């Protein structure tokens, strides 16, 4: 009888433990947004691949900023690197509010999202906030090949590189009725274009300033190159701003992340992260 009683007590204990575990699991499933992130203790961050120096395979400026944000919130960070899809809407659907049909994502927050009024109006399932970087198109040239640069005319004689299908590449291809197409060398990425410049394959490259500065960072021959801004009707006159994005219903998570981003900016930590990659921080 004693042994039967002991078995009954053990079964009762296991039932209580199992019931308690199921209750905890049910409670966790009911949580969402900021409350779920706090419960899990992990901030899942969507990061682009092939966006050097900001992010590539979970490394770069955006990865460091995301780590700093998570630390401010008392969380661990988990990166979800992903390749850019055909449109920004695709990226937002896959990595912010729905998830990819293959089962990848979404993250709790996505880095490096354009803070653009038209995009914000179009994407009603997404909350855009916390702009943290301003970018613009610049030209870097080998000053021995091109001593001065006031317009695109030197590219009629000297080879110029750009990332394929980038703003710079498209502008160069169509500028002055296609006058520079023959000397335009399209590269898979801006970093590859900069490598081509350093190797002497091209005399100039059109890219964003962070892409240029990070590629020249700590290069022994960096003094051979000059970075300048060219005005052209097809180029964005004031550049653009990028920030964070979360699912539209996750407003509290956005508030907490915005506070953390403000702290990084005010403390100077954000500027230091950019400087670690040789990039000048351009406040939005």
UniProtKB/TrEMBL annotation:
InterPro entries: Solute-binding_3/MltF_N
Keywords, comma-separated and alphabetical: Signal
SMART domains: PBPb
Residue ranges of domain Solute-binding protein family 3/N-terminal in the record: 42-279
Superkingdom of the organism of origin: Bacteria
SUPFAM superfamilies (alphabetical): Periplasmic binding protein-like II
PANTHER family noted in UniProt: ARGININE-BINDING EXTRACELLULAR PROTEIN ARTP, MEMBRANE-BOUND LYTIC MUREIN TRANSGLYCOSYLASE F
The protein's name in its UniProt record: Amino acid ABC transporter substrate-binding protein
Organism: Limnobacter litoralis
